[in-house]
Amino acid sequence: METLYWKDNKLYLLDQTLIPMEVQYVECLTYKDVIDAIQTMKVRGAPAIGVAAAYAMALAENEGIDLDVAAREIKSSRPTAVNLFWAVDQVLKSVDDGNSAIETANLMAINDIRTNEKIGAYGNTVIDDGDTILTHCNAGSLACAGYGTALGVIRSAVANGKDVDVVCDETRPLLQGARLSVFEMQQENIPVRLIVDSAAGHMMQKGEIDKVVIGADRVAQGGVANKIGSLMVALAAKRYDVPFYVAAPMSTFDVDNNIFDVTIEERQKEEVLKFNGKNIASDETVVENPAFDIVESDLITGIITEEGIKKPL
Ligand code: MRU
Q1: H or E segment to which residue 118 belongs
Q2: 32-54: buried (b, 16+ CB within 10 Å) or exposed (e) per residue?
Q3: CATH no. for 120-310
Q4: Atom of ligand 1 nearest to the CA of 149
Q5: Which residues line ligand 1 (CB under 6 A)?
Q6: ipTM topping 0.90
Q7: According to the model, what pLDDT value does residue 46 have?
Q8: How far is the CA of 52 from the centre of ligand 1 (A)?
Q9: pLDDT of res. 186
Q10: Ligand 1 centre and the CA of 211: distance in Å?
């Protein structure tokens, strides 16, 4: 199942708000349609947002919009994943060099899959036969053009003949773990168990988790930003000596900035107030809804990239 594809000058995005109940693609005719899809999380996950943003630039090119104007708008769609900014800048540079935005976007989509396969190959070296691996949110093929980063590591280990069990945190409030990661693993018959977020520490305390592998929205000086809840998993992993890996492409690295200077997206209160469309607290309730948190470098065993396994910055 493709996360996104380009056909007849239109971008098609798998609507990730509907998975696993419905498989439906949204048609994007304009760059503003892509911005809307990014903001409403129809497409999500750092590398997928980056590739979608590159295609948004291609749509803007076809619409005859000034690419610098489109770039500014596209970049303001979500603040935390650096891949979005990286991808838009790559397109601007490539267009300056005489290429078209669409050529650049197509190449980026292909390269993303190749990169993830390399991440998977390096990641396989730290996975042992029989491991139970806990993951948070969805850093799978749905979060990328294909294959996935954290779930790519698991796919690679399975392809190399290792028996692995996967444990997915449900990942409140939007349940990317339950809806997307569990779905991806089930599609490939990889053994998977779903837990509520607060069960992760308990399972590590009982010695049931051998490794944690998560994705990243940004790797910067001092740590990594990833889906809210990653920090609590990392703290529990440190306490119970469970190796904690981050799998991310180099396009997620932001070496010039400190991770604590990165904007952590605050999303709408409705995401927390409602569960499955029903209110779980009154509409007047004051809500905090940070979408990401920061895992400090000393909690991270290694960052699995397409260039090898690196120390955190
Ligand atoms: O809010 P989301 O669903 O875009 O957040 C996604 C994550 O936090 C992923 O772990 C991260 O983007 C890495 S995806 C390979």
Answers
A1: helix 101-124
A2: bbbbebbeebbbbbbbbbbbbbb
A3: 3.40.50.10470
A4: 15
A5: 44-47, 81, 137, 139, 143-144, 149, 176, 215-217, 226-227, 291
A6: yes
A7: 98
A8: 14
A9: 98
A10: 19
- CATH of the domain spanning 4-113, picked from 1.20.120.420, 2.60.40.420, 3.30.930.10, 3.60.110.10: 1.20.120.420
Angle between helices 67-75 and 46-63 (to 10 degrees): 150
- Could you tell which of 14, 226, 304 is best to mutate to test the pocket of ligand 1, judged by most ligand atoms within 8 Å of the CB? 226
Q: Point out which residues pair with 295 in neighbouring strands.
A: 224
What stretches in the chain show pLDDT beneath 50? none
Using the mean position of ligand 1's atoms as its centre, give its distance from the Cα of residue 38 in Å.
Answer: 12
Ligand 1: centre distance to CA 3 (Å): 14
Q: Reduce the DSSP state of residue 302 to 3 states and report it.
A: strand
CB 171 within 8 A of CB 215: no
| pTM for the whole structure | 0.97
User: Is-catalytic flag, 217?
Assistant: yes
Distance CA 8, CA 294 (A): 40
Q: According to the model, what pLDDT value does residue 136 have?
A: 98
The strand pair at 278-279 and 274-275 is best described as antiparallel
pLDDT at residue number 276:
81
103 token code pair: 């050529």
Q: Report DSSP state, residue 300.
A: -
Q: Taking the CB of residue 131, how many other CB atoms lie within 10 A of it?
A: 19
**Which residue's alpha carbon is at the smallest distance from atom 10 of ligand 1?**
215
Q: Where are the domains of the chain?
A: 4-113, 120-310
**Closest ligand 1 atom number to CA of residue 144:** 15
Active-site position among 197, 217, 254, 293: 217
